[in-house]
Amino acid sequence: MISGVKILDSVCKGCVNCIKSCPTEAIRVVDGLVHIIPELCISCGECLRTCREKALGLDEDDWGVLRAYGSPILLADPTFYVQFGSYWRPSLVREALLGVWGVEDLAEEMSVAFDLVAYANCRAIEETPPDRLPLISTYCPAMIRLIRARFPELLGHLIPSESPLEIAALLHRKNKGDVRPVTLAAPCPAKIAMVREPVGRETSIVTHAVSVRRVVRDLLAAGSRVEQDVPALENKRWILWGLRGGESRHMAQFSRRRPLRTLAVSGLRNSIDLLRELELGRLQNIDFVECRVCDLGCIGGIGNAESRFLAHLRLKNLPQKWRLSPEEKRTVEELYESGIWRLEKAVEPLERLPLGEDLAESMAKLKRLKSIYAELPHLDCGACGRPSCHALAEDVVRGDAEMTDCVFKLRDRIASLAEEITNLSKNVPHTLRTRSDER
Known about the structure:
Blueprint: E1 5-7, E2 27-30, E3 33-36, H1 46-50, E4 56-58, H2 63-68, E5 73-76, H3 90-101, E6 104-105, H4 107-127, E7 135-136, H5 141-150, H6 164-176, E8 182-186, H7 189-196, E9 208-211, H8 212-222, H9 246-251, E10 262-266, H10 268-279, E11 288-292, H11 308-316, H12 326-338, H13 359-375, H14 389-398, H15 407-425, H16 435-438
Parallel strand pairs: 5-6, 5-8, 7-11, 8-9, 10-11
Antiparallel strand pairs: 1-4, 2-3
Helix pairs in contact: 4-6, 4-12, 13-14
C-alpha cells in the first residue's frame, strides 16, 4: 500500500520510539534509520506523534507549487473550516480563500455528498439482516486499512458507501463540467494515502493532497481581510463529521423505521478495543459503529493546525439546521437511485507477504520462525529495531536480520566466544609440553 508518511533520513536518530506505536508492526529501524514496510502501513499517523526528532512527516504535495500553476479547486476536509480563530464561520473561511488566492472550494457539493452518504448508510442498515449488524463506517480510511490488516473477518461489516469527499469531487465534475485538478486538504496521512491509492475504487477523482495545516498557515500568513460578502452556508451538517459521533448524528435524520442504535469511538486504542469486541460477537443490538483513529475524531488528525480541543469547542457551538428541506430530500433520493454513493468494488483483506515462494517453502520457514521465536527472550524491548521478538524472528527467516540483532542473544554469543577463547588459550602444542605437564 502507498503510505501517507515520508521519512527524513537526515534527521532520524534511530531512537526506535516510533516502532512501538505502530498498530500493524510496519516499522523497522535498521542501520540507525527508520524503514516503513508499505504493505503493512495503514497511515494512521501514530508514528508521527511519537517521533520527537520530526524525522517522520506527511507525504503531501507542495501547496505553493499547486497555487503557482493557477487557482486550484480545493476539496477541504470538514475539519478545515474550524481551524481558524479569526474566521469563525465557514463562510468567512471561503471568503478568505477567494480573496487571497481566488481558490474555489466545494462546500456546496460537500453538503450534498455527506447528506447522500448519511442517507445511504441508513438504507444499508435497513436492508441488512439483524444477525449481520452492526455495520461499520467506511469514512476513516485508516480504519479501513486497519480492518484489512488485523480484522479481515470484519470486512463483511463494512458499509459499502464511498467516501463523501470522493462523491463531492465527482458531483463538481458532473454538474459543472470542470475537469481542472482537485486538491484535497487532508487532516491526516490516511486521507493523503486515500487519494493516491483509494480503497474500493480503482483511482481517485482527486488529483493532489496537501495537509490542512499547510493551507491554514499560508492563509493566515496572507492576512486576508473579510467583508462577510459570501453568503452563509445553509447546510453545515457535514462539518460535524469532523467530530466523533458527527456521522451518527447526521444519519439519525434519515432513519425511517426506528431510532438508530450507534456506537462512536475515537482514538486508536479505543477503536481496536471496540473491533475486538465486535470480533468476539459481544456487540448485540447495535446498528452502526463509527470508529475514528484520531482522538476526538478527524479534528485530532496530525495534519491539522489548530488544537483539537479548540476545534471541538467550535464544532459544538456551530449552529445547525438538522431538518432537511423537501428539495434537499428529493436531491438525495435521486442521487441515491443513481448509485454514485456505492463503492465500485469490495474491500479485500490485506494479504501479508508470504514467507516463501511456494507452500512447502512457506511451511518450512514457518516452522523455523517458531523455533527462532522460542529462543528469543519475549521481552519485546525493541533494541533490535523491531517492534517485537516475533517480528525479529520473522525478519531472520526472511533473511533481513540476524539472531545476534537481539542484544540478549548477542551477549550469550559473546560469552560463548569468550569461554572458547579462554579454553583455547590453555592449550599448548605437543612439542612444548613437558612430562610434568602431562602428569
